[in-house]
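[Automated response] Your request has been received and processed.

Submitted sequence:
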Amino acid sequence: MPTLYCRHFLAHYRLYWAVISIVWLTLVPAGAGKTPHEHLDRVLEKDFITAHTRTTPTTYFEGRQGPTGFEYELLHRFAEYLGVSLNLDARHSPDEVLDAVRGQGDIGAAALPLSPNTPGLHYTRPIIDMQPLVVYRRGLYAINGPADLEGLTVGTLSASGTEQMLETLKDTLPELEWQALEGSEIAELLAMVENEELDAAVIFDHQFRVNRLFFPNVERGFAVGEPRSLVWALPAGQGLGLLEAADRFLDEQRENGALERLISRYFGHDDYLEYVGTRTFLSHLDQRLPEFAPLFKRAALETGFDWKLLAAVGYQESHWDADAVSPTGVRGVMMLTLPTASDLGVQNRRDPAQSIDGGARYLRSLMERLPEEILGDNRLYMAMAAYNVGLGHLLDARDIAQMRGGDPNLWADVREALPLLQQRRWHSQTRYGFARGGEPVIYVRNIRRYYEMLSYVERSRQQFFQLGQTGLAQTGASP
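Generated structure:
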């Protein structure tokens, strides 16, 4: 439904139901019952909808360009569909979301599995299918089927929808045991597998795709059980108007292809931070870099960076592609967000000169905004990490490093702290909350490797040129 049409419709809808409510009150005795659209009427009257969620990579978090996440974006679209504002409460653990919806909430959206006949709740139509997946620690013998889980220490998250599948497996595998972690998140569960506290875990496939790069010692095992449906939850006993509106909205998103595009954007790209092999890099160096090298060198002169470092950042961001667009909407050679580009005076993010100049100035501004006591390469690496994850989250990681007895001015200690922003027990103590803290660690590592390769190639070419000049001199030939 187009936004303008939707707003006209809702204006008439409000007027219509106001009249109906007056008639209803004159005809029905007090206490005789509630209107079928009571909940929806209340949302429209207060002009906002309160959604209860939690901070995870697949639901909601503060990203590089502000609030983001699959369910956050879908909720934001639903609020626009209703013509109201979105009020988000993301302070919950997985176990708390449903209780919050039963209380004063309008809707719950937190990777909730469909659980029919849950007291006090209604569920929307399915949004996506969630396939349970067994993952295990690298180095174990191959785990190919459920029977291989017997005797292993297995973990899962309570209230996530995976424990019910394990209960079903136990009917045929009586020796199967597992730990159901309460109040934890996927990153914490995978960290337990990575750190040998668990042998294996059961999560959903899309969760593993989003997190796999941060846990290189966790292997994909096998799909198990039937897919579960991800749904939104609404309180029962308040009429079905809001539920019906949510179902209509989801149907439209599915029919016009918007839902499929959103799924692809968040769960169809899990290789953004992959380290590109030498052969691919050298191919891009010969075919793409010559077009951009003068722009990197000009930006380096104006900002004081080594041009090869700026080129390495550009390669990590876009593979030197001026038309690149990330799954989250940043674009251009240096992948500037729209707010950052606006602050820097960059009018066209796809213009390579503007993008490279803006990216270089932004990196310089991040270095200048860091505390003075951060010195040398530590300052550069932290600025690069902030380019990826945001300065606020970088400063939160410094606080965590200090809490853990480390030095917040050393990249080595901050690098260890950044992934902890994915764990509730740590990010709950910070100002900016959850972040995909594993990303900037990989991001900085990749840039350093690209910079080393660029430096090696430049040195090799200079040596080759010098050898050529020496040969010409010895023969007496002119260059």
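Summary generated for your ticket: The first helix runs from residue 3 to 27. The longest strand covers residues 228-235.
If you did not submit this request, please reply to this message.
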